[in-house]
Specification:
Layout lengths: L2 H14 L8 E5 L8 E7 L6 E8 L13 E10 L5 E7 L12 E9 L4 E12 L2
Antiparallel strand pairs: 1-2, 2-5, 3-4, 3-6, 6-7
Length: about 130
Amino acid sequence: MSRSIVVGVLAALLLASPVLAAKTVLNVEADGAHFGDTVLVTVSGNTDAQVWARVGCYSNVTTEPASAAGTHILDTFAYLGTSPGVNGDAYITLGPNSPYWTGGGADCVAQLWDSRRWRPMANAIDEFSVLP
């Protein structure tokens, strides 16, 4: 077997190792959250990025003022930490500073962002609902 094949196989095995390629996990503690509540956003795992969480909320039938379902009503970012082995948290308040959302519920998505490239990180998403 050629040396390049052996090196390629070893590299693939190392990258597949759970120790060296741990998944970055995003979690929003929003069970029972209502408009105006503050929720905890946490991240854990390995990344080589400076990590931010973006929370975007979208209207549903309970949102005040009434708007078409799926209308973007809140967009906020919170800094969670930096590498290596990020384990950070931040608090995000749901809604009161948005002119498009003055009460009621919403459907929200939290996603990790890499600040060096300022783009979302794949597979680091948490969806949650805000109760009316």
